[in-house]
Protein 1
Amino acid sequence: MSEAKSGTPEAVPTPPKPPMREALIGAAFRLFVERGYEQTTIDDIVSLAGVGRRSFFRYFPSKEDVVFPDHEKCLADMTELLKASADSDDPVARVCDAARLVLRMYAENPTFSVQRYRLTRQVPGLRAYELSVVWRYERTLADYLRSRFADRRDGTLRADVIAAAVVAAHNHALRSWLRSGGEGDAGAEVDRALELVQEAWSPRPGAGNGQSAQDTEDVVIVITKRSTPMWRVVREVESSLGSN
Amino acid sequence: MSEAKSGTPEAVPTPPKPPMREALIGAAFRLFVERGYEQTTIDDIVSLAGVGRRSFFRYFPSKEDVVFPDHEKCLADMTELLKASADSDDPVARVCDAARLVLRMYAENPTFSVQRYRLTRQVPGLRAYELSVVWRYERTLADYLRSRFADRRDGTLRADVIAAAVVAAHNHALRSWLRSGGEGDAGAEVDRALELVQEAWSPRPGAGNGQSAQDTEDVVIVITKRSTPMWRVVREVESSLGSN
């Protein structure tokens, strides 16, 4: 799990949820699974939960929102985490940490998450809703990266591309975990996926960008054949530069 | 424009469009701009176009579809182009070419594209529709890359991440062109954006991966200070390896 990974931020403590909200979510999912999403009305949900119709709309703007009850909070947590970043933080590592908040939300309740995943595959309206939520996460990450890359000529482009890559890597791992029925270590899968993005876009620690490397001024000599693949040369240079 | 770029595939010749379809699109957009999208009914559109209601549904499943009339054809062209790829083609370059088909579709009619962009910004339902279309392009590119990366352990992950990066880069350039009112060279902007993705994910020509580099076996020596930023070292190594 990502919680166990060093350097991963602690979850913001969640205030106890109002029982009525939980009751509505529970009732809605029971009906969605039993009768199907389209066949369930808001009246059915409030009747099973034993509350009034107005109570439903106090918590959820629409029937779609009861399917994804925690994304608003997760988006707020993500914004908070990114706002709390230091200028010395690697921006790509930071958006990867931010993406892990989404995984953590899903992993908190695997049964619910898997159930919802299956529901979302079946209902086109829910897939559309999910795409719009994913887009909001991507914009949140991109906005942070745009501010961090403000001094680069290609800053906004780079920000948008990296945000999309992080979201795609995260969702690849998340969906593979959901498809498996919530078995296995979702956090480790997400870490592995995000590593691919960091390899492509982050400066490597100790590879000449860090503080420690700037303290030493000795010379590195790399000798290689012209036919050596570029990745092998880079690895060689990196291990030389990073070994201080 | 991307058409002028060497190596970019030629557009599949478009058959002449039926005038009734064009008349419906024209009428719809005139009304969307004059009255607003939500305020325009399908009855208003068919009445202005001087055709029957059934004719509308012969061409467009819904009111949203008349706003994006050419995406289905573009998706089909994209699938075709990717299917026609050779195994020797660089897969990342190939999906970049495929993405350029979308740009070309927008650039064919700048006035219409800019008008639609402004409309889409204003109508949440159209933004959702657009997200679902973008998702279909991304899946088309990812499916191709998955087949090309089938022998890699991280093939599906890599495919999804690169597809997302290509789409994000393409859309970044496309939207900046649309925001500017369709001024300037959209093709050049898209090329520049896609180059960022290719730099991160494609093997570089002449950088030890190409045929020509394998013919020569001389030695390259790079001498650098430990404090030199990694990107500068890589650039130095690249220019040495690539200068044959």
Protein 2
Amino acid sequence: MNAPSQRNRGQDKAAESPTLEDVAERSGVSTATVSRCLNNPSVVSEKTRARVMEAVKALGYAPNFGARALAAKRTNTFGAIIPTMENAIFARGLQAFQEELERNGITLLVASSSYRPELEDKQIQSLVARGADALLLIGHDRTPDTYDFLEKRQIPYVIAWVHDDNEARISIGFDNRKAMKLLAERVLDHGHQSLGLISAQLEGNDRARHRLEGIRDAMKERGLDPSKLQITETQYTISCGAEALATLLHSDPKPTAVLCGNDVLAAGALLEARKQGLRVPQDISITGFDDIEIAEIVSPALTTVHVPHSNMGAGAAKLLLAMRNGEDVEQSVELEATVVERDSLGNAPT
Amino acid sequence: MNAPSQRNRGQDKAAESPTLEDVAERSGVSTATVSRCLNNPSVVSEKTRARVMEAVKALGYAPNFGARALAAKRTNTFGAIIPTMENAIFARGLQAFQEELERNGITLLVASSSYRPELEDKQIQSLVARGADALLLIGHDRTPDTYDFLEKRQIPYVIAWVHDDNEARISIGFDNRKAMKLLAERVLDHGHQSLGLISAQLEGNDRARHRLEGIRDAMKERGLDPSKLQITETQYTISCGAEALATLLHSDPKPTAVLCGNDVLAAGALLEARKQGLRVPQDISITGFDDIEIAEIVSPALTTVHVPHSNMGAGAAKLLLAMRNGEDVEQSVELEATVVERDSLGNAPT
């Protein structure tokens, strides 16, 4: 619960957040015009609107006075924005995140961006406007505007599900490229020469791009031409995984092993293989990524990459709590992801 | 986005929401004491704390002045509280809910209560304090305090996933009892006489209780003794479903058909049956509920109840938007749930 006694403190400090007046001053229009731009843009000229929106962005203004007042005090509410709730890939990590927060008296609110950066940007603004003390975000890919906004509003955030030495932001996760390389090596160990990949959309998804690079790394090291990797990009659903396998089976040469960007796609690929009368793994090998529950209930069970969901979620909560408490958090945390061999990977057909 | 121009209006109307002072006056203590009760209860005597909390509840006070100010205006943020994100049972409905809201410029924030009423109560207070215009809730079961709070704060809400003629609150959903009765009848049509049920915890979960009643209704109608139904209550996870089947297989008489409270439990039961060398459906029939994607990827595919996820989610959004816009919504919406027969239900072994 919050400290109502901080009400006055909150109001005194409210000036630290940009105000409607600041936006009006910077864009050289009246506050009424700024208000119209934000609430009823169709009645404002395109030119005025562009000028006002430029000022809104430059100042990091969130059009909500509640947030401005709240910025100076804790709400004990954290936000998380995940790309999807439609399948369970973020569920276990998020559950661990929430449990750790709850032990510290924090309520978690979650938004789901459907892998759309512009929607995520809106949701971040909304969570900040609603007074979220800190945010959990998935992966580094997002618009510069979003990062600008977070910086200007000084909202602590942690990036999860990735570890990328090239990025300076504080993150907790595993190296997607290294993890997928390990799995690809295991596939190549089974004698497969012709590989396929069913991937999530690569644009705006650093995890997906790194997984692709991991396969290419492994192919290169084994003297295979990485440009021969057959790639299909699709959405993270079972039916998309099934369709994508059907597409890959039309390519020449036909892949003998299909690596999937996650377990959900792999479950779909298994369904399609069964439908086409292909035996897994005798006729074709199929692998997943994530090691969520679905990996064990499909038949054959999936060879996949085990992602440290719970440690990642709980660790992200600890990092965010430390940041919110004003401690210096300087180091990203790298966790291990390991290959789990089950029955969906076998030797290449001879 | 919000109307910053409403800032003053918001402040003028703030008095409509209960203040810290109101709580102090009603409980006959200083505002500092109220503040301590809310923020550092261990330093306050139990008696004082009880008196203050009584006043907090009676007044519907949310300890956050931001919320009080926001109560007088729209934030274009709706909240949803679902019992779990750990599996996909609410995912598709929630996605449809979010998409309909998005078309109307509303951002959705979600909280997950882990089926715990006291946590849900906290999350509702937090969403209201953060300015949510309206709420989606699952099922009717929750504490009277929670309903009191919603009423006092005049937050529009819709109950989803149920239709129960005995409840006056506006809801959109299907009749869980009727739906499960239909499925149980189908099971009995296959000659099964000895039934088992793997159910979610019945307390605090009206959907689970109604599903149980539906099975009993069907048994009664066919002249079977409903007290003979073997029931195991557990959590909604795959591994719990597996354990629960193992337990049921020790009961006497051993059930020849096991109905599961949802598809996730049924997937677990299938795994356990396979582990024990039982063929489904030749040796034992297993059914699900929900018809989420998992129902089709397990082997054999699940006979289950198809829940109108998308219509329910989109419909809930429409109802809430109407309420938020001040329209009179007087009628709950009942949707159909239908039985889908796949391969996991067969004739009783002879």
Protein 3
Amino acid sequence: MFEQLGLIGCGLMGGSFALALKRAGLVKRVVGYSKSPSTTDRARQMGVIDVEAPSALLAVAGADIVLLAVPVSATEASLKAIKHLVTPQMLIMDVGSTKADVVKAARSALGDKAGPFVPAHPITGREVAGVEHADADLYVGRQVILTPIERTLTAQIRQAEEVWKALGCRVTSMSPESHDEAFAAVSHLPHLLAFAFINGLAGQPQSDTFFSLAGPGFRDFSRIAGGDPKIWRDIFLSNRNEVLAQSELFRQALLQLEQLIRSGNTQGLEDLITLASETRTHWRMGGQRSKGH
Amino acid sequence: MFEQLGLIGCGLMGGSFALALKRAGLVKRVVGYSKSPSTTDRARQMGVIDVEAPSALLAVAGADIVLLAVPVSATEASLKAIKHLVTPQMLIMDVGSTKADVVKAARSALGDKAGPFVPAHPITGREVAGVEHADADLYVGRQVILTPIERTLTAQIRQAEEVWKALGCRVTSMSPESHDEAFAAVSHLPHLLAFAFINGLAGQPQSDTFFSLAGPGFRDFSRIAGGDPKIWRDIFLSNRNEVLAQSELFRQALLQLEQLIRSGNTQGLEDLITLASETRTHWRMGGQRSKGH
């Protein structure tokens, strides 16, 4: 049980965390700060936060748990802003989708005060942003990856695990580098492809006709193209090496299929589609692929 | 009201059409043929068809409505097989996802008997194949594109429109060529990308870890990668020029995003993601994009 959550960034992710923590009875009071005063104001009116703080530093004053829910590019500045009130007793977490850059920012901003900071990535989200979509259920049933570094305090890692589990999450740990490599592959790349796909269509003169004929396959495939531009811009830039490496591997796989189509290689094409189809069919969210193929 | 449906191909699409037609009270009897006798047998046991025919030709004997629900590559052979029992009074349709090749097959197989054939593409499907997934609701609320040619009889076009409307579909007409161009863009391309995406991941040594971390974005984006290999092999090959042209445009859009990431062009990257995000957000299935952006 915490006395006070200091929430820095009162958007979808931060607001949902505050609502979930309150509903679970894990916090008495939420003090919130957002860059835009109108966001903080709305968060208070909605009951997402109890008190508006005029700065990130003041949101942390008196807090025993702090959540940084800002675009990853704002991590370093936010940590610098709160550094003077960071104590070895508090639990500080973020919710960023990339972790190597977050760890780097924490090292740079907090230095030897980085012990209470546990980098966290809850795998959830919506194709809508803003506190008005905050939802106490956003984290329920989701996976949360913790990426502690050598300086991270064990007590805070345990606390972080307990908090997320109390919100209904499954918690696993990995290194920031392994995290970023894996999420470049299963999350950042498909977002990049979905954005490129929509832009490729939108640039054609017949795009209105195209879009009017699109069906349920298009709908599901392109859903993630509705993601928040600033968030995704930051993710691509902060994880650029891994994202570009995955995009290169993807293009090789695409060119291989194109070549089989161009040459009319019926069996080769069927074999590669079968590989994809069976792999996808046997995939279960959050589990392993079944063995044997 | 029809007396007898001759169903050639008793899989998901054909079986669902038979069930829907029966439920709507539009047909008295269904005679079915499948290449595999076990499929036909199962279709009869399930009540999808009433009588098993030993050949495509015999499935058409006595039919006043015929549905060809076979892979598009089998269209010409199927039409040749039934040609001798085709009459100017019957309504013959297919459900193929590509239309220029189907029209070519009809011209070649039926010649001056092509009048009663109305090429049709109902925009629906499942990521599972086979008569065991046949569903009377598969076509409800879906769009159906008719692509009649110069020889197609007006009476049959009207009948085709009425049948699909009675099953709960919206019906539109366009040329086979416009159809294939549009569906290369909004359906065939995303399937190709989804197959390439899964294969790109599956080929990496850490793929088991990757798949275990995949979340809801991955799930929706890759759903269509579970499609039937033979169906999609045929679609890509029969519409190869349009598919390859769309894939080329896509790769240009992808390389443009990659270049902005590589050079760290924050604003340019945000602008292109914003274009994609707004376009996708304003898209509504089966409707036009909203104006003003």
